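It would be a great kindness if you could assist me with a short task in structural biology. Thank you for your consideration; the sequence and its tokens are set out here.
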Amino acid sequence: MATDDQKGVRTAQFHISAALFEELGERLVSKPEIALAELIKNSYDADAKSCVVSINDQQITVSDNGHGLTEYEFLNNWMVVSSSDKSKLRSSRKFQRKMAGSKGVGRFSARFLGTILNVKTTARDPDDGKLKTLEAEFNWLEISKKSKISDIKIKYTVAPALRGTTTGMTLTIRSLRENIADLPVAKVRTDVLRLVNAAGGLEQPDFVTKRSVYGDPGFEVSFPDQEDEDEEVKNLARSILDRYVARARVSVSVDGKVDFRIYWKGQDEPIEKLRFTLGSLAKPFLARTLAADKGPKDHRGLPEALGGIDYLPLASELNSPVFVDIRFFPSRQGTFAELPVNGKKAMAWVKENSGIAVVDNGFSMPAYAEESSDWLAIEASKAVNERNWQSIFTPSFYPMDPTAKRNPRLNPMLALPRMPQLIGRVHVATQKVPADIKDDNNWLHPNMDREQLRDNGAYRLLWHLVRFTVEALAHFDRAFRLEDDHLKEEEARKNARQGLAAAIAQISASSEINDEHKQSMLRQLHEVEEQYSTAEKHEKNVRVSLELMSLMGVMAGFMTHEFDKTLESIHSAGAVIKRLAVDFPELSDDADIVLRNEKALAQQADYMRLYVGASRNITITPFKAKAQLNAAMRTLTSLADEHEIDIEIDVDSKLPGPAVPLAAYHGVAVNLVSNAMKALVARVGNKERKIKIYAATYESTHVLVCADNGIGIPDFLRDRIWDPLYTTTENSDDRNPLHSGLGLGLPLVRRVVDSVGGKIELLKKAPPGFVTAFRVVFPT
């Protein structure tokens, strides 16, 4: 219908078809357990202490002891489609429960189950204080025949409640749909309980369990016709959940402060405790930050460097508290030792109850509670043997060494738990976005059907947090398993040594073996014993050397701090000597030496300070190769001048550096040049001493070459130079830094180059005019 005003402008009005109820009932939900859960949520919102669900071939009954509906509430709330009542009242009237429903359409899910709905509700009349019972019946088939909602007339009765009647509501659904009547009741019961008894025996957060202020007695859903879970089974569940191999417990406040803890089997205290804010980690991945990137973009409009990362961009906050409790039960010997049931039965229980559900205000969201749900893409990662962390948080706390990434035994992502091995809950408390908030990107809130959270920046932030939690479990599980493997290897070596010694003793004492044959056997066994000992000693030395390499970083930081204090004293001393040289000319040269050395030390200290700072930041940022090589070489200028060594950098000033951390590039260059300087100082004769550094891009790689005309490396030592602790300069003149070494330089360089995905080699033939050359290939 349309109307005209005096100026001829027409006005149109919306007319809502009765078919809307079909959409609300049959499209809003997709499964019977979801439809039942929606009706049970209404009981929870009505401050019911219990809800009883009865299912048979003829009808489904959902009955509660909540506050019921008065006639006014029936007419102005129940009979109003998408009533805003729950949106305005975000807490229940008596126990102040967070309202599980918010859209005002959950009751229409009854239409999904059957075509007849009988509503019988008893409430206290606010006018006279007496209990009254209202009863109405909805025939959905007849309703759908009406052309307009205004044509629908629902008859109802109101009468004084019978003696002994208490407040509450009973919904009876009859004329069940064919697909509903044939469902196995036990499965429906299990699926419903999965949604409404969301804790599942795991820890619940304060924002769900804190009821003492309002005297909330709790809410229980029961299926009296199908009670088959006795106390013994419940006790078994508790026992299994406490027998985890690993557990992650994460608490996030509304303002984004995270308390992150990892617990391990047999240990009361957490093995990992982290505190951080979500906003600080999310900042580089906000929409405005990523949009400001001027580089090439992928199909999503995000920087190409993030092409392998899903669920971006992020929001800076969630506007909801979060609590995560995830427990890991690997299929391993000893996981369920000392349980009252065998391991196979316990593992079957874990598999049946596995999954990481999202619980909103105490109720599981169906999309995440389903057995087949892989919302964290864990099974997807396992299917393709994904080797890279998928959460953008994980590299910040557990950066993966590229060497480990390539090694299946060391890569922690390949130890990612499977979904059937995980039982977890992610509790959130969504709330209606305030009307004055135009952009809801920073708010966790459910979709219209409430089966899942809306895909926005807040949801993606939550995804990366929970995925990081599972990846952290993989990180520590791999570390502990490697440690266990090491202990087993040590035990195997010990047994092997004992077995070898026993064999030697037995052969030596044997009178049945002739002497010549015995001596031959013993000689071979002693050779094996010696080779075994040599190999063990070498492996131990390598392990110790790697630990020493790690200590060098600590030393560098300490030396930088101490240098600052020492340099002040040297500068003051040099100034005093300079003044004294006016009266004592013989001190003039000493004053120049002190001040010159002080300047050189200050330059090296400044560089060391920058290097230590850069080494803490493993982020890869663009840089120009020649500028950084010049900066690194300035630290060696004084030593080069002292020994008349010419260092030439043959690099195009516009050449971009490789895709490696800046500290790695500096460290490799300084180590190669300092090794070359040692070879030049050791050379006899007056021939020019020179080092040349080449760098260029070749076939999508960055190639760095360091060549010198020093004493060279004999062929028989070409392989030994990579061994940790091997050096040709030990026991030399310790007054000269170029006459000393720990044997850590080249092994450390190789380890760093490997860790960034590169390769280093000693060239068989150096460039013309040079004797030795090392070639490093970095990824671009």
